[in-house]
Amino acid sequence: MATPEEIMKHHEPDPDEDPWVRGRPAPAPVEVVPYDPRWPARYEALAAAIREALGPAALDVEHMGSTAVPGLAAKPVIDIDLTVADPAREEDYVGPLEAIGYVLALREPSWHQHRALRLEAPAANLHVFGPDCPENIRHRMFRDWLRANPADRDLYARAKQSAAVGAMQVMAYNKRKEATLREIYERMFRAAGFL
After folding, report:
1. Whole-number Å distance between alpha carbons of 29 and 10
2. How many domains does the chain have?
């Protein structure tokens, strides 16, 4: 089981690791749009297809990220966390996911063996982690915190909208909203008794 210290640890990319499987994506404007009430149904359809493709290899499939928080502005991309027994065993899941349109985009062995696959339409990011992964737990905590705390949901929405202005890379967008994200994390971790 992940410890509070592991869950609270902010990810610092390994400077010696090139995570891009097919090269860094071309610059494109980052778009944050108002909440779309169709996002949960879009997630359900994607999750059903993932479960059907993977069978028992899919230990858990969860809607994460901003599209999973009612009322929160977001990039119109469904974020999904997939739990598998061992993310390093790509042969257990990548082929079946590619067969339904996903493309392996990121491989980060230094970060909980994280893998990310992308789907073009409908746009989705599929994050693959192992059981009891601290990052997956953190994602779930943050989603649930924003669902239960409208003030922080709205604060985060404003940070996202501001960060997207002129951003041409998701990494730059993420960096711009990092201070607000960490402020909310601190409140969340304190409420959970971690601090």
Report:
1. 26
2. 1
pLDDT at 11 over 90: no
CA distances from 139 to 93, 188, 193 (A): 21, 12, 17
111's tokens: 């970060």
The whole domain housing 34 covers 29-192
CA atoms 126, 131, 137, 138: torsion sign: negative
| Closest to 80 (Cα-Cα) out of 108, 111, 48 | 48
User: Does 10 fall in a domain?
Assistant: no
* Cβ-Cβ contacts under 8 Å for 44 (sequence gap 6 or more): none
pLDDT attached to residue 171 = 86
Q: How many CB atoms lie within 10 A of CB 159?
A: 19
- pTM of the predicted model, to two decimals? 0.95
pLDDT at 25: 87
What are residue 104's DSSP bridge partners?
A: 117
When the pLDDT of each residue in the chain is averaged and rounded to a whole number, the result is 96
Q: Is residue 24 part of a domain?
A: no
Q: Is the pLDDT of residue 135 over 90?
A: yes
Q: Is residue 61 part of a domain?
A: yes
Region at 44 (left for phi over 0; alpha for psi -120 to 50; beta for the rest): alpha
What is the rounded CA–CA span in Å between residue 188 and residue 194? 9
Q: What is the CATH number of the domain that holds 77?
A: 3.30.460.10
